Amino acid sequence: MSKLKSNAAAALEDLLRDGMTLAVGGFGLSGIPADLIEAVRDSGVRELTVVSNNMGVDGKGLGILIQAGQVRKVIASYVGENKLFAEQYLAGKLEVEFTPQGTLAERLRAGGAGIPAFYTKTGVGTLVAEGKPLAEFDGGTYVQERAIRADVALVHAHTADTDGNLIYRYTARNFNPVVATAGAVTIAEAEVIVAPGELDPNHIVTPGVFVQHLVQATDRVKDIEQRTVRPRAELASA
User: Fold this and answer.
1) How far apart are CA 41 and CA 62, in angstroms?
2) Sign (positive or negative) of CA dihedral 101, 15, 116, 94
3) What's the whole-number average pLDDT of the chain?
C-alpha cells in the first residue's frame, strides 16, 4: 500500500496537537524537511517540544517555528545561529535542554531501538550531568541519559519509494536516519520518489517499516547558513 500523500499538510492531518514532541532531521539548513516544517507552522499548533540538532536560522528552517511563537521547549546541541532563539531563551520564554551532539544522536537512536536509557562519559562533571543518575563502570564515572521518543518525526530524504524506503544524499544524511526511527509516527519528504522495487536494497538507509507517510518535496533553493568560498587554484595562480 502506497504511503504517498498529496502534500505535507495532508500528511500531518490529524497528527498535530498542542504540547506534542516533534523530532526533526537536518543539520543547520542541510537536509531539513522544509515543506513539513512549513506545514507545522501553517497548522498553528503551539507549545511544541522540538528535538533537533539545532534550530535553523532566523526566518529559515526551524527558525520559522520560533518566529511564530509555536515552540515551548527545545532539546538541541547547538543554537548559536538563531538570534531570535537566543532572545527568547534569555527572556525566559523558551525552555532549552542542551545535549552534547553525540549524546543527542544516541538518545534518538536508543529511542528507535527500544532502549530506554544508556550511560556515557560525555558531560560527567558538567551542568549536563546535573540531576542525572551516575554509575561506575570499570573504574570510570558515567552519566545516565534517557532515550528520546517523539510523537511525530519529520525527515528529509533524497530518494524514496512509495513503500517508504529512504536514501539520503551526502551530508544531508546527518541526523535524519536516527530521527526517522525515533517517532511514533514518521513522515518523510523526498526529492525523488520511485515505485517499489526500483531502489537497490544495499543503498537503503532507512527501511520503510519506520516511515508511515511520504510526500514529494518541493523543488526549492537549498539555503546555506554560512557560505565560505576560496579562489579556484587555476584562478589564483593566473
Assistant:
1) 9
2) positive
3) 94
Torsion of CA 138, 141, 147, 148, to 10 degrees: -150
pTM of the model as a whole? 0.92
Provide the H-helix boundaries in 17-175: 34-43, 63-67, 83-90, 101-113
Cell of 128: 549536563
What secondary structure does DSSP assign to 161-189, as a single string? Answer: ETT--EE--GGGGTTHHHHHHSEEEEEEE
Type of residue found at 4: L
Within a 10 A sphere around the Cβ of 52, how many other Cβ atoms? Answer: 27
Q: Distance between CA atoms of 179 and 225, rounded to whole angstroms?
A: 21
Give phi and psi for 79, each to the nearest 5: -135, 15
* C-alpha cell belonging to residue 162: 512509495
**CB count, 10 Å around CB of 15?**
18
pLDDT tens digits along 159-214: 999 999 999 999 999 999 999 999 999 999 999 999 999 999 999 999 999 999 99
Residue 109's region, left for phi above 0, alpha for psi from -120 to 50, else beta, is alpha
Backbone angles phi, psi at 211, to 5 degrees: -110, 125
In this structure, how many other beta carbons lie within 10 angstroms of the beta carbon of residue 234? 7
Q: What share of the chain in percent tops pLDDT 70?
A: 98
What is the separation of C-alpha 162 from the centre of its chain, rounded to a whole number of angstroms?
22
